[in-house]
């Protein structure tokens, strides 16, 4: 256990306020996506590969931050709660990012359209297999496999991180360099997180481009998160013990998400022009509904007159 003299509290009110604002912003920015899936009752329009890459990237980024700031985290046993929360807020920040994105994956699996999960002997979609010969449809089968990959990836890198941190002697001062194997592992986590983030949006961009619909994607979420990536990078870069491997993930993700946002806005305008909703269904305007009601009303009023004249 570290002593109080080795764990000097560091106060940076600007970074603390920035991190607090970003944590609140993360919850607010992801809420529209969570709500959209739940309210529409479907996750159609999301790419399972996008969710796989995003979940694994977020997990690697979170463990990169934990590894680099492990000595600061251990100081929490000797520091007041406020100082501990301030110094370890970066871990909370990236941990919250991982949690909020992983919730999207969970909601995707829960709200995946039942009628698209299986197909019967006649290749017709069905909610559940009517007999033993029914098989999973390709996309649902892929989604199940990728979800297990996400779980296994998280377990493996978590156990490896904890093993290295608890079996490697670490210097007390956060300013001193980490041992080579811990530093190499942190770099691996950071670089892999950045690479996964770089290709994370490629499947979703391709999927959204092909269907030419917004689907279950939340434009408000992307409108908040795309500029928020700049603040995320700044907040992490200012934290002690971090390096470029900690913030590069969010820089890359911000650029890619901006591209997806641009495409969704274009498709949204196209949908409005074609008179369809985000899932390709015909949209009935309020004026159209009023016209229909008036037409029905006028027919009911004139019908007796036509009948009396016959």
UniProtKB/TrEMBL annotation:
It comes from Amanita thiersii Skay4041. Coiled coil: none annotated. The keyword Membrane applies. It comes from the Eukaryota. GO terms for cellular component: membrane. Keywords: Membrane, Transmembrane, Transmembrane helix. PANTHER family: PQ-LOOP REPEAT-CONTAINING PROTEIN (PTHR16201:SF11), SEVEN TRANSMEMBRANE PROTEIN 1-RELATED (PTHR16201). InterPro entries: LAAT-1, PQ-loop_rpt. It is a multi-pass membrane protein. It is found in: Membrane. The keyword Transmembrane applies. This is PQ-loop repeat-containing protein. The chain crosses the membrane at residues 13-32, 44-70, 90-111, 144-165, 214-238, 244-267.
